[in-house]
Give the backbone structure.
Amino acid sequence: MGSERLTPAERELVTYWMEQIEWGLKYRSKFTDVEDWPTYRAWYRGDYTERQPCEVIVNRVFPYVRSMIPRVYFRTPSISATPRRAEYAMHARVTESVDNWLIYETRVKKQLKKAILDAALCGVGVLKLGYDSEFGYDAMQALDENSSTVTQVGTKSGDAIEYNSCVAPGMPWALRVKPEDIVTPYGYDDPDTFPWVCHMIVRPLDDVMEDQKYDAKYRKQLKGGFTVPFEQRSALVDKRKDSSVTYVLLYEI
């Protein structure tokens, strides 16, 4: 974004948050082994690139982790609602039924397994909760009694700009977030005390430009230039499979 088009107050705000995020990244780099997380994931997949040609590698990481995950997560996550008063028994049954339906529809079980795998390999597992849209929600854009929006499609093309099938309009969602995409404040080690949490998001520039959740004033100032390694582009669901697609890095705080 061109800082020359920002007001002094906006420029000061951006500078403040970029400094906070930079300190958070330094804190994470100092007190975690984030640089080694790709290596741990490679070991899990059986990729031992540093081995000698004559060496025979036995991958113990994969069976250890795979046997641990079923022991940690709920095989069939469910909620049991207990009424505090006898006359609320039917209310509790309805609440329990709706909650269990939501758990199934939003595929919470799948996301829990991914987060546990992250915790085993990286020491951190993150679940992000949201509603209606993966990249933010504005109640002022709701269209019906379910508070659902149509911000998942572009304002001009009408094409989809969000691609996660676990996210649906008018529905809550829970998604696993890669630990390296999360930044926390410098000096904090307890999630219950975090004054803020930053989620770093990479999106194609074209999708962001058509996303009505973002202020048009700032969208017009965006210039793509963030480089994404080719092996990571499949995770971004690049609909055109074009290596020339321009990306932007967003900070959701």
User: Anything to note?
Assistant: Residues 233-240 have pLDDT under 50 and may be disordered. Residues 44-122 form one domain.
